[in-house]
Every structure is written in C-alpha cells, then in structure tokens.
Amino acid sequence: MKFGQQPLLLSLLVVGPLVLLFLVAACFLPTGRGPSEISSNYNSVLINNDSILSPAVEGIKTNPALLIAGAGDGKQQQQQRQLQGSGLWSAMGQQIVGDAVGDAFSTARDISSDGTTIVGCAEVGEYCKVFTYNGSVYVQKGNTINRPVASEKFGSTEVAVSSNGQRIAVGARSADTGGFTNNGCVYVYDFDGTTWQLTGTLSGNASNQATGKEVEMSSDGTVIAASRGQAETAHVFKEVNSVWTRTATFTFSGGNYGTSLSLNAAGDTLAVGSPAQNSNQGEVYVYKNTGGTWSWIVQSKAHTQEHFLEKTLAFLPMG
Asked: Contact 235/249 with Cβ under 8 angstroms?
C-alpha cells in the first residue's frame, strides 16, 4: 500500500463489497524523498529517510512527533517501525542503507502484508535487496538483485512484494524488449530458498509505453498490473502454471491515465488514476475481473479541479 509524502484527502467509494480508499495529494507540508509503506494489518510501517511520515500514517500512529533523520551521506536508508501494545510506534531492527554513496537506496520500497519482509531498490545503483525480520534485526534474504540490463531505470520508481515475501516484481520503465524501444517491463523474481531467480519479464506492447513506472501485485503474487501515466496505458498480467500471460490492456486518451494504480489483494479489481482528466479535475477508473473477463465498473471524479485525484491510490485490506 503506497502513501505519498503530502497531506492527503481521504474519501471512500463503496461499490458492492468493494471498498476503495482514494489518497489525494494536497501540497501543504515539506516532503521527503518518497512515499512510505504500511503493512495491510496496519501494524508495521516502512519509512524512507529524510522525511516526515505522511499524514495517512500520522492518522494511524499515536506518536505525531516521529521524524526519521537522513544519514547525510547520500546512501539513503529505510527503517521499519512497529505499532506496540501501548499504541506507540517503535523501531524494528536497524536502519538499512544502500551499498554506496549516491546509490539512492529505498527510492522504491515495499513491505509484505505481515510486515516482516521488506524490499528496497536503489534508483542510481539499479539493484534491489530483500530483508526479513528475525525478531531483533533485519537479515538480507538471498542475494542482491542486480539490474539484468544497464540503464533501464531498474527499480527506480516501483517494486512490489507478495504477501509471503517469496516473490517480487521490479519495474524497469526504460527497457527495450520484444523489438520495441522504451516499452518498459516488469521483472519478476522468485526466491528458491537460497537465491532470487528471474522467472518472468512482463513487457509493454508498444514503443514509449515505459511500462513499469507503476507496479502492483496481488497478495499471492500471481497477478501483476503495470503502467505509466504519460503513455496512458495499463496492463494486467497473470501467472498460470509458471507461465505469464497478458490478460488485459486498458487505454484512455488524455488525462495522464495510468499515473497510478492499485490492485486489490485478490488481484481481481484494479483502480487506475487519471489526475489530469477534465481540466485537471482528475478521475479514477475501476475494473473488475469476473470469470476471466475484465470490465469497467465505475468512474469517480474529484469534486474540485485541482489535479489531485488520483495521484496515489490504495485498496483497504478487505478489498
């Protein structure tokens, strides 16, 4: 679940059993380098350094003075905090830093649903690392995942981890695959007990789509959605018997459609943000997979023209 660093306006859209939480950026306080992540049980939060927690997290925790100071060495770091029985958030383990100064580690990050597995990627260094919490410290899980190909912006904006921490998906929006240029892709890695193995490459189907700037994964890791707003295209991929297939491609002209995505835990409902629609009023398009067929079910607009709906989207855990 992604939370931005800006103060957020929260509104709920109820569509039958679907409860969708819209997080809308509003620009009031200084921000840090990137978003924070929170586990689906709301008990653990992963924080980027050099930033104040986003108001979405401020509203959940009971210690409003929490501040994570930057290391000042250009590596960037991340640290997880856990909600205690007392209602206060306390640090879990040590701060995790990048390998070298200037790596910009934790530019992309995610957290498993139980909060015990975290993954961070280095925008400049183009690598990702996965860590598990052993009760006192974080221990790296498997090998460092290095970029398959240079200069693809591997892990520069998005990474996703499955609920059990055994699969991750890393966006590489500048990849050239399948005879296309800058179509982008998502690399899928599975943990075999020792190392992370590349098991899938999910690509855009046209040049300049830059697929992988936004990446979402279902709880079990078998459904992945990817997009990029300027390309105004969103893709959904599904794995069956270790084979990945593109099951849907959604497009919408104008409005930076695909600027953000959210996929529910079951992987059968997708929300796609289009913040510049209707003279920057912004819209969210929601799609549902029923019996293997994706269909559009609802469209939501912001009440004012402020170019904010949908900068960031997230489903509540029950979705």
From this structure: yes
Residue recorded with tokens 């924080």:
47
pLDDT digits (tens, 9 = 90+) for 283-297: 889 999 999 999 988
pLDDT, tens digit (0-9, with 9 covering 90-100), for 89-106? 778 888 888 899 888 888
CA distance 219 to 221: 6
List CB contacts of 125: < 8 A, sequence separation 6 or more: 98, 99, 100, 102, 103, 104, 105
Count Cβ neighbours within 10 Å for each residue of 54-88 and write b for 16 or more, e otherwise: bbbbbeebeeeebebeeeeeebbbbbbbbbeeeee
**In this structure, how many other beta carbons lie within 10 angstroms of the beta carbon of residue 232?**
20
pLDDT per residue over 302-311, tens digit each? 544 444 444 4
C-alpha distances (whole Å) from 71 to each of 22, 38, 46, 81, 93 are 32, 22, 16, 17, 16
Query: What's the full length of the chain, in residues?
Result: 319
Q: 242: buried, middle or exposed (CB in 10 Å: 19+, 13-18, 0-12)?
A: exposed
247 to 142, 170, 240, 294, 317: CA distances (angstroms): 31, 19, 11, 8, 24
Which residues have a Cβ under 8 Å from the Cβ of 294 and sit 6 or more positions away?
Answer: 236, 247, 248, 250, 270, 287, 288
Q: What DSSP designation does 231 have?
A: G
